[in-house]
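Exercise 7.
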Amino acid sequence: MNLVRFMNNRAPSNKRYQPTEYEHAANCATHALWIIPSILGGVLLYFLSDNQWEEVSAWLYGAGLSSLFIISTVFHTIAWKKSHLRSVEQCFHMCDRMVIYFFIAASYAPWLILRELGPWAAHMRWVVWVMASCGTTYVFFFHERYKMVELVCYTVMGLFPALVILSMTDRSGLYELLVGGVFYMLGMIFFKSDGIVPFAHAIWHLFVAVGAGVHYYAIWKYLYSPDNQQTSTAR
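Solution. The predicted structure, written as C-alpha coordinates, is:
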Protein backbone atom coordinates (compact mmCIF):
# COMPACT_ATOMS: atom_id res chain seq x y z
CA MET A 1 0.00 0.00 0.00
CA ASN A 2 1.35 3.42 -0.99
CA LEU A 3 1.58 5.57 2.13
CA VAL A 4 3.03 8.66 0.43
CA ARG A 5 -0.30 10.41 0.04
CA PHE A 6 -1.19 9.76 3.69
CA MET A 7 2.11 10.75 5.31
CA ASN A 8 4.96 13.15 4.61
CA ASN A 9 8.61 12.52 5.35
CA ARG A 10 9.77 12.97 8.92
CA ALA A 11 10.71 16.57 9.73
CA PRO A 12 14.24 17.57 10.81
CA SER A 13 14.72 18.03 14.57
CA ASN A 14 14.66 21.84 14.23
CA LYS A 15 11.50 22.03 12.10
CA ARG A 16 7.83 21.22 12.53
CA TYR A 17 6.29 18.25 10.75
CA GLN A 18 3.92 19.19 7.93
CA PRO A 19 0.89 16.87 7.83
CA THR A 20 -0.73 15.81 4.59
CA GLU A 21 -4.26 16.98 3.75
CA TYR A 22 -5.60 13.67 5.07
CA GLU A 23 -3.66 14.02 8.31
CA HIS A 24 -4.81 17.62 8.75
CA ALA A 25 -8.43 16.52 8.46
CA ALA A 26 -7.90 13.68 10.93
CA ASN A 27 -6.10 15.96 13.39
CA CYS A 28 -9.04 18.37 13.40
CA ALA A 29 -11.78 15.75 13.59
CA THR A 30 -10.26 13.65 16.37
CA HIS A 31 -10.36 16.53 18.84
CA ALA A 32 -13.28 18.59 17.51
CA LEU A 33 -15.53 15.62 18.21
CA TRP A 34 -14.96 15.98 21.95
CA ILE A 35 -15.51 19.72 22.39
CA ILE A 36 -19.23 19.58 23.16
CA PRO A 37 -18.99 16.46 25.38
CA SER A 38 -16.16 18.05 27.40
CA ILE A 39 -18.16 21.24 27.97
CA LEU A 40 -21.26 19.29 28.96
CA GLY A 41 -19.15 17.06 31.21
CA GLY A 42 -17.80 20.05 33.11
CA VAL A 43 -21.29 21.51 33.48
CA LEU A 44 -22.59 18.18 34.78
CA LEU A 45 -19.93 18.06 37.49
CA TYR A 46 -20.82 21.62 38.48
CA PHE A 47 -24.51 20.75 38.94
CA LEU A 48 -23.55 17.65 40.94
CA SER A 49 -21.46 19.77 43.31
CA ASP A 50 -22.55 19.99 46.95
CA ASN A 51 -20.18 22.74 48.13
CA GLN A 52 -17.95 25.53 46.88
CA TRP A 53 -14.82 23.36 46.66
CA GLU A 54 -16.59 20.86 44.44
CA GLU A 55 -17.78 23.76 42.29
CA VAL A 56 -14.23 25.15 42.02
CA SER A 57 -12.89 21.72 41.14
CA ALA A 58 -15.61 21.24 38.52
CA TRP A 59 -14.83 24.58 36.88
CA LEU A 60 -11.08 24.00 36.89
CA TYR A 61 -11.38 20.50 35.49
CA GLY A 62 -14.08 21.42 32.97
CA ALA A 63 -12.07 24.42 31.77
CA GLY A 64 -8.91 22.36 31.40
CA LEU A 65 -10.67 19.54 29.57
CA SER A 66 -12.63 21.71 27.13
CA SER A 67 -9.68 24.09 26.54
CA LEU A 68 -7.51 21.18 25.47
CA PHE A 69 -9.92 20.10 22.74
CA ILE A 70 -10.90 23.64 21.66
CA ILE A 71 -7.40 25.05 21.30
CA SER A 72 -6.13 21.89 19.62
CA THR A 73 -8.97 22.00 17.10
CA VAL A 74 -8.50 25.70 16.39
CA PHE A 75 -4.77 25.29 15.86
CA HIS A 76 -5.10 22.29 13.56
CA THR A 77 -7.83 24.04 11.58
CA ILE A 78 -5.68 27.14 11.07
CA ALA A 79 -2.71 24.98 10.10
CA TRP A 80 -4.86 23.00 7.66
CA LYS A 81 -6.26 26.09 5.93
CA LYS A 82 -2.71 27.36 5.39
CA SER A 83 -3.56 30.83 6.62
CA HIS A 84 -1.29 33.62 5.42
CA LEU A 85 -1.23 34.80 9.02
CA ARG A 86 1.71 32.63 10.03
CA SER A 87 2.14 34.55 13.26
CA VAL A 88 -1.41 33.55 14.27
CA GLU A 89 -0.68 29.91 13.46
CA GLN A 90 2.53 30.07 15.48
CA CYS A 91 0.67 31.63 18.41
CA PHE A 92 -1.96 28.89 18.45
CA HIS A 93 0.73 26.23 18.10
CA MET A 94 2.32 27.59 21.28
CA CYS A 95 -1.07 27.70 22.97
CA ASP A 96 -1.69 24.11 21.86
CA ARG A 97 1.48 23.07 23.69
CA MET A 98 0.88 25.30 26.72
CA VAL A 99 -2.65 24.08 27.32
CA ILE A 100 -1.36 20.54 27.88
CA TYR A 101 0.27 21.70 31.13
CA PHE A 102 -2.92 23.44 32.21
CA PHE A 103 -4.92 20.34 31.33
CA ILE A 104 -2.66 18.07 33.42
CA ALA A 105 -2.92 20.39 36.43
CA ALA A 106 -6.70 20.68 35.99
CA SER A 107 -7.01 16.88 35.77
CA TYR A 108 -5.32 16.53 39.15
CA ALA A 109 -7.29 19.40 40.73
CA PRO A 110 -10.42 17.45 41.80
CA TRP A 111 -8.34 14.73 43.47
CA LEU A 112 -6.02 17.19 45.18
CA ILE A 113 -8.80 19.51 46.35
CA LEU A 114 -11.52 17.04 47.32
CA ARG A 115 -9.50 14.15 48.74
CA GLU A 116 -7.95 14.25 52.20
CA LEU A 117 -4.17 14.44 51.85
CA GLY A 118 -1.27 14.08 54.24
CA PRO A 119 0.65 17.20 55.44
CA TRP A 120 3.38 17.01 52.80
CA ALA A 121 1.08 15.97 49.99
CA ALA A 122 -1.30 18.89 50.61
CA HIS A 123 1.34 21.21 49.16
CA MET A 124 0.81 19.52 45.79
CA ARG A 125 -2.43 21.48 45.48
CA TRP A 126 -0.41 24.56 44.57
CA VAL A 127 2.82 22.89 43.42
CA VAL A 128 1.01 21.37 40.44
CA TRP A 129 0.03 24.86 39.24
CA VAL A 130 3.58 26.13 39.72
CA MET A 131 4.74 23.25 37.53
CA ALA A 132 2.14 24.14 34.91
CA SER A 133 3.28 27.77 34.98
CA CYS A 134 6.92 26.73 34.55
CA GLY A 135 5.94 24.49 31.64
CA THR A 136 4.03 27.24 29.84
CA THR A 137 6.93 29.64 30.42
CA TYR A 138 9.32 27.09 28.92
CA VAL A 139 7.11 26.80 25.81
CA PHE A 140 7.00 30.59 25.47
CA PHE A 141 10.78 30.92 25.39
CA PHE A 142 11.89 27.61 23.84
CA HIS A 143 8.97 26.49 21.69
CA GLU A 144 10.01 23.64 19.34
CA ARG A 145 13.73 24.10 20.06
CA TYR A 146 14.34 21.09 22.29
CA LYS A 147 11.62 18.58 21.51
CA MET A 148 12.88 15.80 23.78
CA VAL A 149 13.13 18.21 26.71
CA GLU A 150 9.52 19.17 26.04
CA LEU A 151 8.51 15.51 26.10
CA VAL A 152 10.33 14.97 29.41
CA CYS A 153 8.57 18.01 30.89
CA TYR A 154 5.15 16.62 29.95
CA THR A 155 6.06 13.24 31.43
CA VAL A 156 7.30 14.70 34.73
CA MET A 157 4.27 16.96 34.94
CA GLY A 158 1.99 13.98 34.37
CA LEU A 159 3.63 11.58 36.83
CA PHE A 160 5.11 13.62 39.69
CA PRO A 161 1.79 14.81 41.26
CA ALA A 162 0.64 11.17 41.42
CA LEU A 163 2.98 10.73 44.42
CA VAL A 164 0.19 12.13 46.60
CA ILE A 165 -1.50 8.74 46.27
CA LEU A 166 0.92 7.55 48.96
CA SER A 167 -0.76 9.83 51.49
CA MET A 168 -4.39 9.26 50.51
CA THR A 169 -6.44 7.28 53.00
CA ASP A 170 -9.19 6.82 50.39
CA ARG A 171 -7.67 5.31 47.26
CA SER A 172 -10.87 4.50 45.40
CA GLY A 173 -10.52 5.39 41.74
CA LEU A 174 -6.83 4.51 41.68
CA TYR A 175 -7.36 1.77 39.09
CA GLU A 176 -9.11 4.15 36.69
CA LEU A 177 -6.39 6.76 37.19
CA LEU A 178 -3.78 4.16 36.33
CA VAL A 179 -5.64 2.99 33.22
CA GLY A 180 -6.09 6.56 32.00
CA GLY A 181 -2.43 7.30 32.62
CA VAL A 182 -1.41 4.23 30.61
CA PHE A 183 -3.41 5.52 27.65
CA TYR A 184 -1.64 8.88 27.87
CA MET A 185 1.78 7.26 28.08
CA LEU A 186 1.12 4.91 25.16
CA GLY A 187 -0.23 7.82 23.15
CA MET A 188 3.03 9.70 23.59
CA ILE A 189 4.67 7.09 21.38
CA PHE A 190 2.51 8.33 18.51
CA PHE A 191 2.99 11.95 19.61
CA LYS A 192 6.62 11.57 18.53
CA SER A 193 5.93 9.38 15.46
CA ASP A 194 4.96 11.92 12.79
CA GLY A 195 6.56 10.89 9.53
CA ILE A 196 6.98 7.34 10.79
CA VAL A 197 3.39 6.20 11.37
CA PRO A 198 0.58 7.52 9.12
CA PHE A 199 -1.92 9.66 11.06
CA ALA A 200 0.35 9.43 14.12
CA HIS A 201 -0.84 12.73 15.58
CA ALA A 202 -4.50 11.84 15.09
CA ILE A 203 -3.87 8.50 16.82
CA TRP A 204 -2.27 10.43 19.67
CA HIS A 205 -5.45 12.52 19.84
CA LEU A 206 -7.54 9.36 20.19
CA PHE A 207 -5.36 8.09 23.03
CA VAL A 208 -5.77 11.45 24.77
CA ALA A 209 -9.54 11.29 24.31
CA VAL A 210 -9.73 7.77 25.77
CA GLY A 211 -7.43 8.66 28.69
CA ALA A 212 -9.46 11.78 29.42
CA GLY A 213 -12.67 9.77 29.21
CA VAL A 214 -11.43 7.22 31.74
CA HIS A 215 -10.28 9.96 34.11
CA TYR A 216 -13.56 11.82 33.74
CA TYR A 217 -15.45 8.66 34.62
CA ALA A 218 -13.29 8.24 37.75
CA ILE A 219 -13.87 11.84 38.83
CA TRP A 220 -17.60 11.56 38.28
CA LYS A 221 -17.93 8.17 39.98
CA TYR A 222 -15.68 8.62 43.00
CA LEU A 223 -15.88 12.35 43.66
CA TYR A 224 -19.23 13.57 42.35
CA SER A 225 -21.77 10.78 41.87
CA PRO A 226 -24.68 11.02 44.36
CA ASP A 227 -24.25 7.39 45.45
CA ASN A 228 -20.60 7.87 46.31
CA GLN A 229 -21.26 11.15 48.11
CA GLN A 230 -23.97 9.52 50.20
CA THR A 231 -21.59 6.71 51.11
CA SER A 232 -18.89 9.22 52.09
CA THR A 233 -21.40 11.12 54.22
CA ALA A 234 -22.51 7.92 55.96
CA ARG A 235 -18.91 7.15 56.88
